[in-house]
Amino acid sequence: MIYYFIKITDNKNPSYFFIDLTTQKNYKNRICGLRSKAIQYYHTNQGPFRNIYDIFTKDYSFYKVDTHDFQSYKEAKLYTQELHDTYFKKLSCEI
């Protein structure tokens, strides 16, 4: 299955970011869905809280960083962590 990886960043603090994944070809739909859930959570205090919701209270931007074909969601999730670590190291100038 094809997975799309999205980096969502706080524009005022680039070290605060999330890597999210989706199978939706138009990754902007994923951002809309996350943002809607965040707004719903903050207005009603109902439903589970996800750390990613916090980014939508800030000045944020997002873009697709990668596309990969994985056999399972678990593999894709592991790759998400690899991407996060890679981008964090770039910010720390360790690469």
Question: Could you explain the architecture of this structure?
Answer:
This protein has a three-stranded antiparallel sheet, sandwiched between helices. Helix content is 40%, strand content 31%. The model has no long low-confidence stretch (mean pLDDT 93). The protein has one domain (2-92). It is of the alpha+beta class and 95 residues long. The protein is globular and about 35 Å long. It has helices at 27-44, 73-92; strands at residues 2-10, 13-22, 60-69. It has two helices and three strands, in the order E-E-H-E-H.
- The tally of structural domains comes to 1
Q: What would the principal axes of the Cα set say about the shape?
A: globular
The first-to-last residue Cα distance is 30 Å
From N to C, what is the helix and strand string?
EEHEH
User: How many β-strand stretches?
Assistant: 3
- How large is the share of residues in beta strands? 25-35%
Unreliable stretches:
none
Count of individual helical segments: 2
Helix content: 40-55%
How are the strands ordered across the major sheet?
2-1-3
Structural class: alpha+beta
Oligomer: single chain
How big is the Rg?
14 Å
Calculate the mean pLDDT score and round it.
93
Main β-sheet description = 3 strands, antiparallel
Any descriptors?
95 residues; alpha+beta; 2 helices
Break the fold down into its secondary structure elements and pairings.
Elements: E1 2-10, E2 13-22, H1 27-44, E3 60-69, H2 73-92
Antiparallel strand pairs: 1-2, 1-3
Structure at a glance:
With 95 residues, the protein is an alpha+beta fold. The protein has one domain (2-92). 40% of the residues lie in helices and 31% in strands.
